[in-house]
Amino acid sequence: MSNVQIMTGNQAAAIGVKLSNVQVISAYPITPQTSLTEAISQFVEGGELKAEYIRVESEHSVLAVCISASAVGARVFTSTSSHGLLYMHEQLHWAAGSRLPIVMCCVNRGVGAPWSIFNDQQDSVAQRDTGWIQIYCRNNQEIIDTLIQAYRIAEAVYVPVMVCYDGFVLSHTMMPVEVPDADLVKDFLPPYKPHMILSPEDPRNINPVIFPWRRQDPEGVLRDGYMELRYKLQKATEGARDIIVATNRAYTEVFGRDHGGMLWTYRADDAEVILTAMGSLASEATVAADMLREREIKAGVVGIRVFRPFPKEEVREVFGNRCAIFVFEKDISYGYEGALCSDLKAAFYGTGSRAPIHNYIVGLGGRDVKARELAEATLSSLEAIASGTTEPETTWLNCDTYLPGSEVRGQGLGDRRQEEKCRINYSRSIKKNICCRGTGPARGVASP
Amino acid sequence: MEKKDDNITAMCRPAVGEAGKTGDWRDMRPVIDQSKCISAIKNRAACLLCWLYCPDGVVIPTVPVGIDLEYCKGCGICAEECPAKAITMVNEGG
Questions:
Q1: Which B residues in the span 14-43 are in contact with A, Cβ-Cβ below 8 Å?
Q2: Bridge partners of B31?
């Protein structure tokens, strides 16, 4: 029996937490995550969720509480955004290094300076290398479903999971959401079985100073050194790929909704041109793909759902044999390019793929991104590719400024004239040129 | 997933002498005045805040209370916490 309700992303996440029978919650309010923690505190206060809600003075302490609670065997949840996540940074490493299956929502928001409360994904992307699994949701239904999946994944591999979704765009936007049946969730999500419980009956020191070498403990057991433990974290995170795919499949069987395992595609089967992104931006790109199709450009979308572990094999398979790839992202690795773009390029290395890849930095600090603009950016890039540009510079979309002493104005399409130009100059002949000028995929692209 | 691995988090159980005999790190030594110690006065295990607070587990919770000076680093927490002011820190070797 379906139970569809209209709710925001934060409400969906709160219900996901309740359905997952979380036992300990600690959180510190920060925009745009606040209404999520408020909803959970109401569940706890009203007796709907039998859990302990621990209030602390900062996000650093929040995660310290979560680590402690998880170490004594509780299923725990926290959520944060932006500076709260950055404040947790040190503890993120501790949680992953201790192999504690904590689940967190990161309600994506830009980071200062200057202050911004609005959405981009710089906060979570900047935590890429902390050892957490990162899953990006594209709508509110995916948020509730992914939270439930996240506990199953985390508790199978003993690696914490960050469920990321865009602030305001999803967190404060209402959508119809089917609430999963509580009993079915209970069956889907067996109780948390810790790999080790800290208890007074069996006192121990977790995470003592570890020497660079392997060493016998006082009981004579040969213990791993630092590198061995870190290697195990790496293997567990890599190995999470199979668990994520299997969990998604199992979830689809029980609840009838498939959000994609590591990634998802839209009109990609016959697509010559692929637009790719994470989170709600990827959803926006599907509308852009439709617009491009109307102009007889075979466009499709690949939504990267899991950023860590990076879906290398899936990416190689799904991106193989394309004419051009456009990576739109709400983050920037200063001094280089978008982090997703770099990772994608690295995944293609060795496949023989020669498809031009154009990186667009979009929507930083909440700058609006319209589907039409994604479509027009794609057209503009196709035009450049057709005229021989194989390695275009990273473009900051809708960024309209100038640097003193430089001729370069904002490269974006904020300039209406440039936008018109793209539209007028684009023709089918350009599209034909793309794959004929040797800038398309090499023959025999490896497709695993 | 795979076979359960108990060794994925660094940990150690309490054990004597993990860092060697640490008593020689000490500048000051705790000395218990048994005429003031609550356990000694009541002639049974009582109070024992020194034992509870000792970060190195070197307080021996017997009657009278003892201190394992082979491992005591002389931090002085026991003297600070003792409600009866029965523990004094005295200079080691003058």
A1: 14-18
A2: B88
What kind of fold does domain A4-196+235-255 have according to CATH? Rossmann fold (3.40.50)
Kindly provide the b/e burial profile for residues A238-255, where b requires at least 16 CB atoms within 10 angstroms of the residue's own CB. Answer: ebbbebbbebbeebeeeb
Token pair of A56 as six digits: 């602390």
- Give the residue from chain B lying closest to A240, CA to CA: B1
C-alpha angle with apex B91: B86 to B94, nearest 5 degrees? 140
Ramachandran region, residue A224 (left: φ > 0; alpha: ψ -120 to 50; beta: rest)? beta
Q: Do A206 and B13 touch (CB under 8 A)?
A: no
Tens digit of each residue's pLDDT (9 = 90 or more) over A281-333: 999 999 999 999 999 999 999 999 999 999 999 999 999 889 999 999 999 99
According to CATH, where is 3.40.50.970 located in chain A?
Answer: 4-196+235-255
Task: Please provide the average confidence, as pLDDT, over all residues in chain B.
Answer: 90
Q: The domain A263-439: what is its CATH number?
A: 3.40.50.920
Suggest the residue from B3, B4, B11, B56 to mutate for an interface test with chain A (most A CBs closer than 10 A).
B11
Interface residue of B1, B4, B9, B56 to substitute, partner A, most A CBs within 10 Å? B9
| CB within 8 Å: B5 and A232 | yes
Minimal C-alpha gap between B2 and chain A (Å)? 9
Tokens of B19: 């860092």
pLDDT band at A170 (very low <50, low <70, confident <90, very high): very high
Residue A99 to residue B40: CA distance in whole angstroms: 46
Q: Provide, as residue numbers in chain A, all residues whose Cβ is less than 8 Å from the Cβ of B18.
A: 218
**B1 vs A239: CB contact, 8 Å cut-off?**
yes
pLDDT in tens, A327-357: 999 999 999 999 999 999 999 999 988 899 9
Give CATH 3.40.50.920 domain extents, chain A: 263-439
Q: Where are the alpha helices (DSSP H) in chain B?
A: 38-42, 49-53, 77-81
CB nearest A218 (choices: B5, B6, B18): B18
